[in-house]
Amino acid sequence: MFWAEDIGVDLGTASVLVYVRGRGIVLNEPSVIAIDRNTDNIIAVGEEARQMLGRTPGSIVASRPLRDGVIADYDVTERMLRYFIQKAVGKRFFFRPRVMVCIPSGVTSVEERAARQAAVQAGARQAFLIEEPLAAALGAGIDISEASGNMVIDVGGGTTDIAIISLGGIVCSKSLRVGGDKFDEAIIRHVRKEYNLMIGERTAEDLKIKIGTSHLKSTQNPDEGLDVRGRDLITGLPKTVTVTSKVTAQALTEPLEQVMASVKEVLERTPPELSADIVSKGIVLTGGGGLLHGFDMLLSERTDLPVYIAENPISCVALGTGKALAMLNYLQSAQSVAVHRAL
């Protein structure tokens, strides 16, 4: 690839999606990187590295450099991002690409600067930042330029972003460090408490995806179980137990209540005219966490509002970053996008 391309990056806690203008989403990989401690060489990135989590020898470190929606390890994130950009567009391009990176709403200026610098160091000519709920709304096909209220809830791996959007900007929002990862941690804690069994992150994620539910009433068979293997905390030996949907619902109560409380808080702060719009339009749910069974029903039950899951909830933010690059002038005039040029 010899000429520059516009690239949108959903730099998520759980996965990285890369959008290339004219080609759509070209990459969707877990945000995991494995590095050799002795040589500092990259061993694996993405899905291959995810398979190594919790299974590496002492000389290899498999880690997730993003935590709770923000960069926890800057150097490792920059290396991972460089690898993904090169994989998406090729190592050779005449001009460096423009890159749009999404960030959670309400991040600090330090966290913003880290995201910008990581993109520039990874090879961007210009790095733009857009807040996740705004990108999610664009990716879900919402016309954000109208003088009309739209409510978007993006449930990612590290954060849940709740926002009311009108006229190309965010009117009120809240970002909380609760997402898919916290759901997994809640399942790990509950299984440990109920069965004296220690399970890993990948096992907890499998439980969440296969039999996890947030709305037990809508579950056809709440006693449906899944065999999970882990370490017995009493004997120290490997053990297998059967975990049911009912158990996952109990485990997920606490993090889900935090999300519901934040949704109500944002609705309470919404101007009356925009509240009227949301009553008729409902809430749009995006992000991988929004696919948790019964999440939309629970949300609708708690808010008395219709809730719609976006067509491609996992891809919405990445698609939105691509659309944002196409309407850059409008978003910059609405002060929804910040820019950082490579020196």
In short:
The chain is α+β, with helices and mostly antiparallel strands and 343 residues long. The protein has twelve helices and 19 strands. The protein has three domains: 6-134 and 317-341, ATPase, nucleotide binding domain (Nucleotidyltransferase, domain 5, 2-Layer Sandwich), CATH 3.30.420.40; 142-178 and 257-313, Nucleotidyltransferase, domain 5 (2-Layer Sandwich), CATH 3.30.420.40; 180-253, Alpha-Beta Complex (Actin, Chain A, domain 4), CATH 3.90.640.10.
Question: What is the alpha-carbon Rg in Å?
Answer: 21 Å
The oligomeric state of the chains shown is single chain
| Beta-strand residue percentage | 25-35%
The residue-averaged pLDDT reads 87
How many β-strands, per DSSP?
19
Q: What is the helix tally?
A: 12
The unreliable regions are: 339-343
What percent of the residues sit in helical stretches (DSSP H or I)?
Answer: 25-40%
